[in-house]
Design a protein that fits this description.
Elements: H1 14-27, H2 29-35, H3 39-44, H4 48-55, H5 57-70, H6 72-80, E1 90-95, H7 98-114, E2 118-122, H8 123-129, E3 140-146, H9 152-164, E4 169-174, H10 180-183, E5 191-195, H11 209-219, H12 227-256, E6 262-267, H13 272-285, E7 291-296, H14 297-300, E8 312-317, H15 322-337, E9 343-348, E10 361-364, H16 368-371, H17 377-394
Helix pairs in contact: 1-2, 5-11, 5-12, 7-11, 7-13, 8-9, 11-17, 12-17, 13-17
Length: 425
Amino acid sequence: MSVKLGNEAGQSSRPATNVWLRELADRVPVLASLLEVSSEQQIARGYGHTLREICQQPLTWLETSEIAVERRELLERAVYGSPDGQRAGALALTGSGSSLSAADCLVLPLQRSLQVPVVSLSGGQLLTDGKRVLPPLEPRLLVSFARSGNSPESCGVVDLLLDEDPACRHLVITCNRNGKLAASYAGNPRIATLTLADRTCDRSLMMTSSFTNMVLAGLSLAYLGAPAEYRRLVEALAASARSLMLSHTGCLAELARGSFASAVYLASGANIGAARESALKLLESTGGRVRAFAETYLGLRHGPMAAVHRETLLVCFLSSDRLVRAYEQDVIEELNSKELGLAKVIVGDDIPEQLLNPQDLAVRCPGMAAAGDDAAPSLHVLVGQLIAFFQCMQQGLHPDSPSVDGVISRVVESFRIHRPAGERK
């Protein structure tokens, strides 16, 4: 089969990506018809950027791990300070939209590893409330996640805290070296910038590869003292992602092309960030036609279960932790006993057969348990991306720009940044 491929930003990465896309086209029939047309036709049909950016993720993850390891000294200075400085007493992870969900994926693993308080805060919350919402322990490290770095909040938050919190250090993790967030603070000793490979700066309206690569770059902060272990972890995740795409893309496409009016994504711990991002992907990709939200398993019982109807798709991200999974299985069994939902997609390692009804799909990910829940969000969200992509196509929309009325855009439109008139209390 002849597969037509678009241009890569990096020449060195092109051969490996082309080989991988050819393998996908040869082994996954549902992708063959999409990949065999020219890159110009893919773009004209409105899916070329998104499909490539979803598919390239296993390879870009390896690039990101190398970048993070190469810049380990910069990351260490951000977390631990200069040799005569003081380590960060708390971390605040911030972003907007998908970037905030990336931050949500990292709170628990970084807190466990660094043994300091870690919180995730939206850029909007920091703009409205300033340093009042930051953890009280100093010095603080603000980690800003941004695909483009051109959204109004990106620089607005940094500018605000440079004024309000002079002791705060800053680490920027972005996919766009030419974005305002990366370029505006060059030379500022309080701001360190980790820029990922250009091809992770998604050209599609939807964030896909930028999301997972920022998560994995942020996860490197938990492995500053163990770079070889971090590399091995990312290599294992990339291998699992490739296996997932080869084995399950066809089934996910068939399910996603079905008719469902809403979707609920369930997760626990670090994976709730992946659930929120997956729900957002479905909302964005369908122009809001398919309602979607994320919830924790135990939180579902406290009201949100009322939104699970016969036309609701349930996507269940399973934990590998024995205790956490026990609670999750109880909720899934309750949903089964109440006959709620149209069908379930259950994602995880060693999925119990008794949780599955005939219409359900098990996305089995061998090795996910070994990687652990802290590393699992990038694998879980890949399932959410594929569901969103194929449901978007089923709706007759274009994944690269699904908002036909222009309500949402790739980068949030500029808006006024208000500054406090006086000292905040």
